[in-house]
Automatic annotation (TrEMBL):
It is found in: Nucleus. GO terms for molecular function: DNA binding; DNA-directed RNA polymerase activity. PANTHER family: DNA-DIRECTED RNA POLYMERASE II, III, DNA-DIRECTED RNA POLYMERASE III SUBUNIT RPC8. It comes from Takifugu rubripes (Japanese pufferfish). The gene is LOC101073324. This is DNA-directed RNA polymerase subunit. Component of the RNA polymerase III complex consisting of 17 subunits: a ten-subunit horseshoe-shaped catalytic core composed of POLR3A/RPC1, POLR3B/RPC2, POLR1C/RPAC1, POLR1D/RPAC2, POLR3K/RPC10, POLR2E/RPABC1, POLR2F/RPABC2, POLR2H/RPABC3, POLR2K/RPABC4 and POLR2L/RPABC5; a mobile stalk composed of two subunits POLR3H/RPC8 and CRCP/RPC9, protruding from the core and functioning primarily in transcription initiation; and additional subunits homologous to general transcription factors of the RNA polymerase II machinery, POLR3C/RPC3-POLR3F/RPC6-POLR3G/RPC7 heterotrimer required for transcription initiation and POLR3D/RPC4-POLR3E/RPC5 heterodimer involved in both transcription initiation and termination.
Protein backbone atom coordinates (compact mmCIF):
# COMPACT_ATOMS: atom_id res chain seq x y z
CA UNK A 1 0.00 0.00 0.00
CA UNK A 2 2.79 2.43 0.93
CA UNK A 3 6.06 2.47 -1.01
CA UNK A 4 9.32 4.41 -0.85
CA UNK A 5 10.01 6.34 -4.04
CA UNK A 6 13.39 7.84 -4.87
CA UNK A 7 13.09 11.42 -6.14
CA UNK A 8 15.31 14.32 -7.14
CA UNK A 9 14.30 17.98 -6.90
CA UNK A 10 15.88 21.41 -6.61
CA UNK A 11 14.79 23.03 -3.36
CA UNK A 12 14.70 26.80 -2.88
CA UNK A 13 15.45 28.04 0.65
CA UNK A 14 14.56 31.72 1.29
CA UNK A 15 17.13 33.92 3.08
CA UNK A 16 15.13 34.13 6.34
CA UNK A 17 15.59 30.36 6.76
CA UNK A 18 19.39 30.43 6.45
CA UNK A 19 19.80 30.30 10.25
CA UNK A 20 18.05 26.91 10.36
CA UNK A 21 19.86 23.60 9.79
CA UNK A 22 19.86 22.96 6.04
CA UNK A 23 18.34 19.47 6.30
CA UNK A 24 15.49 20.76 8.46
CA UNK A 25 14.69 23.62 6.07
CA UNK A 26 14.84 21.31 3.04
CA UNK A 27 12.55 18.73 4.71
CA UNK A 28 9.95 21.42 5.42
CA UNK A 29 10.05 22.74 1.85
CA UNK A 30 9.74 19.24 0.34
CA UNK A 31 6.75 18.38 2.53
CA UNK A 32 5.16 21.74 1.77
CA UNK A 33 5.53 21.03 -1.95
CA UNK A 34 4.64 17.32 -2.08
CA UNK A 35 2.61 16.20 0.96
CA UNK A 36 -0.97 15.22 0.03
CA UNK A 37 -0.24 15.82 -3.67
CA UNK A 38 -0.60 13.27 -6.47
CA UNK A 39 2.47 12.84 -8.67
CA UNK A 40 1.54 11.57 -12.13
CA UNK A 41 2.23 7.82 -12.50
CA UNK A 42 3.75 7.76 -8.98
CA UNK A 43 0.88 8.03 -6.48
CA UNK A 44 -0.29 10.12 -3.53
CA UNK A 45 2.67 11.61 -1.64
CA UNK A 46 2.39 11.23 2.14
CA UNK A 47 5.60 12.47 3.81
CA UNK A 48 9.38 12.71 3.46
CA UNK A 49 11.22 9.56 4.59
CA UNK A 50 14.84 10.74 4.35
CA UNK A 51 17.34 12.80 2.36
CA UNK A 52 20.00 10.63 0.73
CA UNK A 53 22.21 13.26 -0.92
CA UNK A 54 22.64 17.03 -0.99
CA UNK A 55 24.48 18.60 -3.89
CA UNK A 56 26.10 22.04 -3.81
CA UNK A 57 23.88 25.04 -3.03
CA UNK A 58 23.84 28.07 -5.33
CA UNK A 59 22.59 31.65 -5.01
CA UNK A 60 21.66 33.15 -8.38
CA UNK A 61 21.93 36.86 -9.31
CA UNK A 62 18.72 38.71 -8.48
CA UNK A 63 17.53 35.98 -6.10
CA UNK A 64 18.75 35.95 -2.51
CA UNK A 65 17.56 32.38 -1.91
CA UNK A 66 19.74 29.28 -2.06
CA UNK A 67 18.99 26.49 -4.56
CA UNK A 68 20.05 22.95 -3.69
CA UNK A 69 19.62 19.80 -5.76
CA UNK A 70 18.32 17.15 -3.34
CA UNK A 71 18.11 13.36 -3.68
CA UNK A 72 15.51 11.95 -1.28
CA UNK A 73 13.05 9.16 -0.58
CA UNK A 74 9.34 9.87 -0.14
CA UNK A 75 6.54 7.74 1.33
CA UNK A 76 3.87 7.31 -1.35
CA UNK A 77 0.43 5.69 -1.29
CA UNK A 78 0.43 3.47 -4.38
CA UNK A 79 -1.18 0.04 -3.89
CA UNK A 80 -0.10 -2.67 -6.32
CA UNK A 81 -2.68 -4.31 -8.57
CA UNK A 82 -4.45 -7.28 -6.92
CA UNK A 83 -3.64 -5.92 -3.43
CA UNK A 84 -6.48 -6.30 -0.91
CA UNK A 85 -7.35 -3.16 1.09
CA UNK A 86 -9.95 -2.19 3.67
CA UNK A 87 -11.77 1.14 3.64
CA UNK A 88 -15.18 2.61 4.41
CA UNK A 89 -18.10 3.27 2.09
CA UNK A 90 -18.24 7.02 1.44
CA UNK A 91 -21.45 6.90 -0.62
CA UNK A 92 -23.16 4.95 -3.39
CA UNK A 93 -24.30 6.12 -6.84
CA UNK A 94 -25.30 4.64 -10.16
CA UNK A 95 -21.57 4.55 -10.98
CA UNK A 96 -20.94 2.10 -8.13
CA UNK A 97 -19.71 2.10 -4.54
CA UNK A 98 -17.37 4.98 -3.62
CA UNK A 99 -14.83 4.07 -0.94
CA UNK A 100 -12.56 6.18 1.27
CA UNK A 101 -9.37 5.22 3.10
CA UNK A 102 -9.66 8.32 5.30
CA UNK A 103 -6.71 10.05 3.64
CA UNK A 104 -7.65 8.99 0.08
CA UNK A 105 -11.19 9.17 -1.31
CA UNK A 106 -10.96 8.37 -5.03
CA UNK A 107 -11.77 4.65 -4.96
CA UNK A 108 -14.60 3.21 -7.07
CA UNK A 109 -16.09 -0.27 -7.16
CA UNK A 110 -18.21 -0.34 -10.36
CA UNK A 111 -21.54 -2.22 -10.50
CA UNK A 112 -20.14 -5.17 -12.48
CA UNK A 113 -17.50 -5.70 -9.76
CA UNK A 114 -19.97 -6.03 -6.88
CA UNK A 115 -21.16 -9.31 -5.39
CA UNK A 116 -23.82 -10.56 -7.82
CA UNK A 117 -26.74 -10.28 -8.22
CA UNK A 118 -26.71 -6.63 -7.15
CA UNK A 119 -29.21 -3.80 -7.58
CA UNK A 120 -29.21 -0.06 -6.88
CA UNK A 121 -31.91 1.11 -4.46
CA UNK A 122 -32.89 4.56 -5.76
CA UNK A 123 -34.89 5.45 -2.65
CA UNK A 124 -32.08 4.61 -0.21
CA UNK A 125 -29.24 5.48 -2.62
CA UNK A 126 -27.37 2.29 -1.75
CA UNK A 127 -26.29 -0.83 -3.58
CA UNK A 128 -27.83 -4.10 -2.42
CA UNK A 129 -26.48 -7.64 -2.74
CA UNK A 130 -29.40 -10.01 -3.27
CA UNK A 131 -27.88 -12.92 -1.38
CA UNK A 132 -29.45 -16.27 -2.26
CA UNK A 133 -30.06 -18.83 0.51
CA UNK A 134 -32.13 -21.99 0.84
CA UNK A 135 -34.85 -19.86 2.46
CA UNK A 136 -34.81 -17.36 -0.42
CA UNK A 137 -33.05 -14.09 -1.23
CA UNK A 138 -31.86 -11.70 1.50
CA UNK A 139 -31.06 -8.06 0.74
CA UNK A 140 -27.66 -7.08 2.13
CA UNK A 141 -27.33 -3.28 2.03
CA UNK A 142 -24.01 -1.50 1.44
CA UNK A 143 -24.62 1.42 3.78
CA UNK A 144 -22.51 4.55 4.13
CA UNK A 145 -19.77 4.24 6.76
CA UNK A 146 -19.61 0.43 6.63
CA UNK A 147 -16.13 -1.11 6.49
CA UNK A 148 -15.47 -2.82 3.17
CA UNK A 149 -12.70 -5.11 1.95
CA UNK A 150 -11.84 -4.91 -1.76
CA UNK A 151 -9.20 -5.97 -4.26
CA UNK A 152 -7.47 -3.35 -6.43
CA UNK A 153 -7.99 -4.21 -10.11
CA UNK A 154 -6.91 -1.04 -11.92
CA UNK A 155 -5.59 2.48 -11.45
CA UNK A 156 -6.21 5.62 -13.46
CA UNK A 157 -3.85 8.61 -13.55
CA UNK A 158 -5.07 11.85 -15.14
CA UNK A 159 -2.67 14.67 -15.97
CA UNK A 160 -4.38 17.65 -14.33
CA UNK A 161 -1.57 20.15 -14.91
CA UNK A 162 -2.76 23.48 -16.36
CA UNK A 163 -2.98 23.73 -20.14
CA UNK A 164 -3.57 26.64 -22.49
CA UNK A 165 -6.78 27.13 -24.44
CA UNK A 166 -7.32 24.73 -27.32
CA UNK A 167 -7.54 25.95 -30.88
CA UNK A 168 -11.29 25.28 -30.89
CA UNK A 169 -11.75 27.65 -27.98
CA UNK A 170 -10.00 30.52 -29.69
CA UNK A 171 -12.41 32.91 -31.37
CA UNK A 172 -12.05 33.46 -35.10
CA UNK A 173 -11.29 37.08 -36.00
CA UNK A 174 -14.45 39.01 -36.80
CA UNK A 175 -14.98 40.36 -40.30
CA UNK A 176 -15.62 44.09 -40.69
CA UNK A 177 -19.19 44.83 -39.67
CA UNK A 178 -19.71 41.34 -38.21
CA UNK A 179 -20.52 40.89 -34.51
CA UNK A 180 -18.60 38.33 -32.49
CA UNK A 181 -20.34 35.70 -30.39
CA UNK A 182 -19.02 33.39 -27.74
CA UNK A 183 -20.51 30.43 -25.90
CA UNK A 184 -21.57 30.99 -22.29
CA UNK A 185 -18.80 30.22 -19.84
CA UNK A 186 -21.00 27.74 -18.00
CA UNK A 187 -21.13 25.50 -21.09
CA UNK A 188 -17.35 25.36 -21.26
CA UNK A 189 -16.98 24.08 -17.72
CA UNK A 190 -15.86 20.48 -17.50
CA UNK A 191 -16.25 18.11 -14.60
CA UNK A 192 -13.13 18.16 -12.48
CA UNK A 193 -11.33 14.84 -12.76
CA UNK A 194 -9.46 13.16 -9.93
CA UNK A 195 -5.71 12.97 -10.67
CA UNK A 196 -5.49 9.41 -9.28
CA UNK A 197 -8.31 6.86 -9.00
CA UNK A 198 -8.29 3.25 -7.84
CA UNK A 199 -10.75 0.74 -9.31
CA UNK A 200 -11.69 -2.21 -7.09
CA UNK A 201 -13.76 -5.36 -6.96
CA UNK A 202 -15.62 -7.24 -4.22
CA UNK A 203 -16.92 -9.99 -6.50
CA UNK A 204 -15.06 -12.77 -4.64
CA UNK A 205 -15.64 -14.84 -1.49
CA UNK A 206 -14.44 -12.96 1.60
CA UNK A 207 -14.61 -9.54 -0.07
CA UNK A 208 -17.23 -6.90 0.61
CA UNK A 209 -18.59 -5.61 3.90
CA UNK A 210 -16.69 -6.99 6.88
CA UNK A 211 -20.01 -7.56 8.65
CA UNK A 212 -21.02 -10.06 5.96
CA UNK A 213 -18.19 -12.44 6.89
CA UNK A 214 -17.79 -11.75 10.62
CA UNK A 215 -21.25 -13.00 11.58
Amino acid sequence: MFVLVEMVDTVRIPPWDFQRPLNEAIAEELNKKLANKVVYNVGLCICLYDVTKLEDSYIFPGDGASHTKVHFRYVVFHPFLEEILTGKIKYCSQEGVHVTMGFFDDILIPPESLQQPAKFDEAEQVWVWEYETDEGAHDLYMDQGEEIRFRVTDEVFVDTSPTGPSAAEKEAPAQPGQATTSAPKEENKEKKEAPYTLIGTICEPGLGLLSWWNN
